[in-house]
Amino acid sequence: MGRAQEEGHGLIYNMRLSTVGSTRASEIGTIHEPTGLDLAMKLHYLKAVYIYSSETARDLTVTQLKEAMFVLFDQIAWTTGRFSRRDSGRPYIKCNDCGTRFVEGECNLTVEEWLGKPDRSVDEVLVYHQPVGPELAFSPLIYVQMIRFKCGGLALGLSWANIMGDAFSLFHSFNLWTKAISGEKIFIPKTFNVNKTFQSPNPTVKDPDSIKRVNPVGDLWVTPNNKKMSNYSFTLAIADQISPHFPANSDGYLPVFEILTGIIWKCIAKVREETKPVTVTIIKKDPNDLKPNGSIRNSQMISSVSVDFPVGEASVEELVRCIGEGKDERDGIDEIGDENLDLVVYGARLTFMDLSEVRLYEAKVNGKSPESVYCNVEGIGEEGLVVVYTAVKAEERVVTMSLPEEEIDRVKLEFKKCGLI
């Protein structure tokens, strides 16, 4: 059902909860209508953790953080509302200013000790998460957790209901929050309701390959899984661990995400002993940026890549070519989502998400970038998810994986064989 931090959980203790909203009340009766693509993502939750050094964050107070959140939510107050349902069952957000849950806690390690752990999935405990439901009218859509380290450093963890907006919306909002902490003026364009009219879906037309229908979950928005999922996160160098797997292009361009996806796809395929055909999902930033710059909405590119050969025996170069030919499935997902069905996107097929273009380290506090950033998704289907994003050093990448627990050790062994870890 999702994990929430508890008093005494591991190294985190002294938890305290409060609520933060906007300073301006929404007009009575204001609502926000999710699109079909938004609704398709309702069982998923984006997670991010930013860790700041003691030098950067020692003097940062809870009051300063909350005051900056007031400024942020004045711009996007609808994200602090609550879901309700129409008579048809379709969810919508009541802009009732109920607020975001704010969690405070402490850690008995220093930032240096915490970052000394090689598997960055330990950062999962720095995010407070609860799913939406079972009482929609009382479920916050965002949780923000502030953990103070023994040295005075700070971890800021966010759980963000994916139905509100994609990962690029989340990180854009976080960057603006840090600007507000520094006293800068911020602005987020209004996210206008989008009304789309689709013809009655043809029952002979199959669903997009990148989604899976699940039995109705009701008002508790949790992905149904029969397998226990496990997380693993590691950092690798482009020059030493990625480039050797791919021939150099004459123009010097290196498709880092695609190469890394090909390598990891091969490793997982070997563990699963997959027979052909095989389909994976690729999630990236929309290259045409269909939404207004800075608006909060789901517009991420969701592509399906199918092959009819054994992936474990294929070359990385061949897989990179196939990834480049992926089919954008957003229109189909938007249409299916508008039917108010319960769907799984992340992990319906093995999913690779590219966050390399996100400017994670522009989230500066007192002029200083975070020491570390962690990204993942809660509510992943049984096929698993691989997230790739830039590390502190631009020439490195972080990989965060969520796979069935029964596979994770064998996949790591394949990684060692090919030099990833």
TrEMBL record:
Annotated Gene Ontology cellular components are: cytosol
Write the record's keywords in alphabetical order, separated by commas: Cell wall biogenesis/degradation
Task: Report whether Nucleotidyltransferase shows up as a keyword of the record.
Answer: no
Q: Provide a GO biological process annotation.
A: cell wall organization
Q: Name one GO molecular function term.
A: acyltransferase activity, transferring groups other than amino-acyl groups
**Gene3D superfamilies under this entry?**
Chloramphenicol acetyltransferase-like domain (3.30.559.10)
Task: Please give the superkingdom of this protein's source.
Answer: Eukaryota
The UniProt similarity line reads:
Belongs to the plant acyltransferase family.
Provide the protein name. Answer: Protein ECERIFERUM 26-like
